[in-house]
């Protein structure tokens, strides 16, 4: 994400930007102890009253502002019960917020401005650790980074998790967060949970709040609903994980051409436990992650501190954002492609931030303990430096501003989907360079889950990040290609969107894709019959009331709708609604030259 910018206007400037990127890499290697941490996503006018919430990039898909009358910061389960009880008695709407608020859709939003935000910021402690039973019970506001460290203290490891450690346990449970694997129970964090303690609204006899203790053995139906809950069942208080003995990983990156990638993608995940891909479709290249478990006594002290997740100089980030804005204005596709090649080659040559001993990279494979190899996010860790350096997407600076389209395509359909994307690239080889400025298409393996709103089958999760204009009515270069890819996945191949990412259109009718949706909704009705933890957004995506799409002039530019007429695009700027190039059923905003 840190390389989500476009540092070039053409080949004449490529050497300059290679130098700049080299200086950037040097900065991240020696300067990561200093970085202004993200601010709290909840801001209040006075004390804890008259509050608003945003996400980590500072803008929801529809750019609305989400408010509440006040925010509560419980520090214990008892305080949490008291807060939920008082709000339930008063009939107030509630939603949970987390320390960094990394969900892009409006999952944290409350209807109106009279509700209550419940922040889990201070519910971040270990409740108990049992090395013999290999279990760890933590509060829901604990970050993934803390969870990994707490497990390691007792010689245990979480086998799979997202690569960014700034998410919380409750946030991962709420949205179905995952790593990459087809092995074991798969890569979803929630499938390594054995017990959930949740506080939900109660009756008068319950004191208006009820602690529910859920497990696979005692309450399997409710447990499978709570494993991916979207926050509509109540507040997760504590989570118990079944962990594994600490192990090491042996990791090697290999870059190849993508000629046989459509076949390789189907089998590679069976050969390597932690396999993933970074696909660079405009360059015709794929970076294969050959990543396997090895014995804990294997020699090696590797560390993965992913370069784009390290602190970055705000001035450099601002310069490169300005560069991409200018390229968009000038429709400079060539410049974007040159920059994309520079960025991807720089990342690959610096091993993406892998070091053999925490300091330098001496060659592949890099072998290190699971707790040092699985996730990172060091831009969160530094001391305050007055915004001289930050995470690249910090909304307080002129930083990276992006859309994120993320969906899981069934493994049986992946070959056809990859071929469809290749067909688009054949039409215009420069069309997807913009994706490669943002790391490329990250592809991770997922498996079916018993969670009612979890993955339905073995699949590959395609994570696509790309430029978003500051003005919602400004179209993007080659936006029709990305819109077509999005619609091919969602509608041709029935892909499942990631609950914590994506633009509004991805969630239109999504609940019909889940065979256990009726069972989930039945549990929701039982836990929260008055819908106090529900919102307009959750009602829309769960198919209860309304539709997540918003139809208005320019709505297709930001994925609020699929265009059905020219006005949904930007006709005054030459962008009109037309059928797709490969998937004729798609409707996309294309730049039409006279």
Q: What does this entry look like structurally?
A:
By secondary structure, the protein is α+β, with helices and mostly antiparallel strands. It folds into three domains: 42-119, Uridine Diphospho-n-acetylenolpyruvylglucosamine Reductase, domain 2 (2-Layer Sandwich); 126-246, Uridine Diphospho-n-acetylenolpyruvylglucosamine Reductase, domain 3 (2-Layer Sandwich), CATH 3.30.465; 248-508 and 547-591, 3-Layer(aba) Sandwich (Vanillyl-alcohol Oxidase, Chain A, domain 3), CATH 3.40.462. The chain contains 14 helices and 26 strands. The protein has helices spanning 14-30, 77-90, 144-153, 169-175, 220-226, 261-271, 314-330, 333-349, 370-373, 411-427, 433-436, 479-492, 517-527, 536-541, and strands at residues 42-46, 49-53, 66-72, 94-97, 116-119, 126-130, 135-139, 156-157, 193-201, 209-215, 235-242, 244-245, 248-257, 276-280, 285-294, 303-304, 312-313, 354-355, 366-369, 389-390, 402-410, 441-446, 459-467, 496-497, 575-579, 587-591. The chain has an eight-stranded antiparallel beta sheet with strand order 19-13-15-14-22-23-21-24. Strands 1-2-3-5-4 form a five-stranded mixed beta sheet, covered by helices on one side. Strands 6-7-11-9-10 form a five-stranded antiparallel beta sheet. α5 packs across α13 (517-527), α6 runs antiparallel to α10 and α10 (411-427) runs antiparallel to α12. The chain is globular and about 70 Å long. The chain starts with 13 loop residues before the first helix and ends with a strand. The model is unreliable at 1-17 (pLDDT under 50). This is L-gulonolactone oxidase.
């Amino acid at each position: 994400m840190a390389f989500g910018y476009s540092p070039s206007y053409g080949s004449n400037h490529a050497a300059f930007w290679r130098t700049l990127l080299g200086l950037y890499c040097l900065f991240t290697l020696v300067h990561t102890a200093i970085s202004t941490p993200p601010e709290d996503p909840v801001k209040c006018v006075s004390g804890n009253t008259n509050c608003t919430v945003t996400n980590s990039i500072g803008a929801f898909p529809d750019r609305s502002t989400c408010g509440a009358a006040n925010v509560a910061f419980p520090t214990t389960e008892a305080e949490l019960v008291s807060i939920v009880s008082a709000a339930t008695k008063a009939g107030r709407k509630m939603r949970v917020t987390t320390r960094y608020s990394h969900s892009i859709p409006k999952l944290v939003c409350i209807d109106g401005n009279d509700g209550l935000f419940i922040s889990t910021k201070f519910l971040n402690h270990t409740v108990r650790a049992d090395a013999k039973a290999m279990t760890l019970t933590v509060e829901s506001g604990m970050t993934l980074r803390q969870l990994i460290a707490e497990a390691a203290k007792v010689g245990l490891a979480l086998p799979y998790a997202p690569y960014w450690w700034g998410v919380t346990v409750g946030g991962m449970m709420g949205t179905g967060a995952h790593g990459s694997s087809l092995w074991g129970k798969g890569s979803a964090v929630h499938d390594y949970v054995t017990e959930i303690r949740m506080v939900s609204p109660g009756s008068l006899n319950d004191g208006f709040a009820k602690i529910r203790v859920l497990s696979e053995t005692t309450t399997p139906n409710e447990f499978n609903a709570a494993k991916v809950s979207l926050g509509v069942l109540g507040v997760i208080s504590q989570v118990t994980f079944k962990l594994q003995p600490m192990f090491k990983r042996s990791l090697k990156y290999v870059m190849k051409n993508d000629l046989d990638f459509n076949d390789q993608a189907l089998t590679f995940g069976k050969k390597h436990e932690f396999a993933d891909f970074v696909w660079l479709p405009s360059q015709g290249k794929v970076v294969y992650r050959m990543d396997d478990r090895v014995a804990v006594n294997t020699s090696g002290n590797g560390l993965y501190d992913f370069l784009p997740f390290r602190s970055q100089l705000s001035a450099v980030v601002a310069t490169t954002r300005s560069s991409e804005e200018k390229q968009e204005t000038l429709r400079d596709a060539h410049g974007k492609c040159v920059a994309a090649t520079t960025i991807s080659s720089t990342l690959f040559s610096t091993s993406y931030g892998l070091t053999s001993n925490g300091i330098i990279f001496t060659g592949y494979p890099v072998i290190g303990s699971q707790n040092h190899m699985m996730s990172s996010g060091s831009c969160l860790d530094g001391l305050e430096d007055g915004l001289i350096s930050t995470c690249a997407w910090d909304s307080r600076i002129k930083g990276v501003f992006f859309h994120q389209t993320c969906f899981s395509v069934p493994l049986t359909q992946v070959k056809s989907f990859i071929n469809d994307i290749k067909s688009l690239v054949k039409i215009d080889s420069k069309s997807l360079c913009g994706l490669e400025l943002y790391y490329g298409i990250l592809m991770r393996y997922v498996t079916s889950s018993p969670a009612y709103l979890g993955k339905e089958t073995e699949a590959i999760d395609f994570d696509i990040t790309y430029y978003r204009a500051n003005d919602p009515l400004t179209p993007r270069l080659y936006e029709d290609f990305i819109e077509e890819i999005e619609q091919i996945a969602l509608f041709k191949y029935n892909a499942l969107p990631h609950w914590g990412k994506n633009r509004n259109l991805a969630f239109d009718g999504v609940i019909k894709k889940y065979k256990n949706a009726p069972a989930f909704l039945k549990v929701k009705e039982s836990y929260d019959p008055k819908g106090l933890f529900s919102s307009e957004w959750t009602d829309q995506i769960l198919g209860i009331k309304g539709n997540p799409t918003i139809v208005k002039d320019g709505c297709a530019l930001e994925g609020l709708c699929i265009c059905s007429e020219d006005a949904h695009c930007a006709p005054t700027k030459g962008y009109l609604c037309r059928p797709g190039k490969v998937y004729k059923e798609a409707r996309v905003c294309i730049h039409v030259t006279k």
